[in-house]
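Backbone shapes recur. Consider a single case.
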Amino acid sequence: MLVDTILQTKGVIVHTLPETDTLADAVRLLNAHNIGAVVITDTGGAIIGILSERDIIRRLGKDPTGALSLTIAKAMTRGVVTCTRDTNIAEVMERMTSLRIRHMPVAETGELIGIVSIGDVVKFKIQEAEREAEVLREYIAS
């Protein structure tokens, strides 16, 4: 199965912020939408980074009183790992696991078209296993 299968189910809404916003702005966005990461884009919409809850916590650990006033540029992860809608879900799971990342933007020809989380991937894999088990039950019963 492909990433497109997940996008068809969950949708393609991706929340973005510019790197000049503050960590406080990012926290407000993450809380407002109950999400774990925000994609950071330049003025043209190109992906330049990703900011996760983990990135924010690490900054808070270093400077509890001043971290939220920092710009996103000082805390975000650069060199974002992306996939396309045609990437196999097993490959995405492998890359997320080996790189220890929880969110992967979906991009094509440099354009952000979605995002998948490890939760999306696990949910899909569970549904896939349940479908396979049902097919086997039906086969055995017939």
Observations:
- The mean pLDDT is 94.
- The helical segments are 3-10, 23-33, 53-62, 89-99, 118-141.
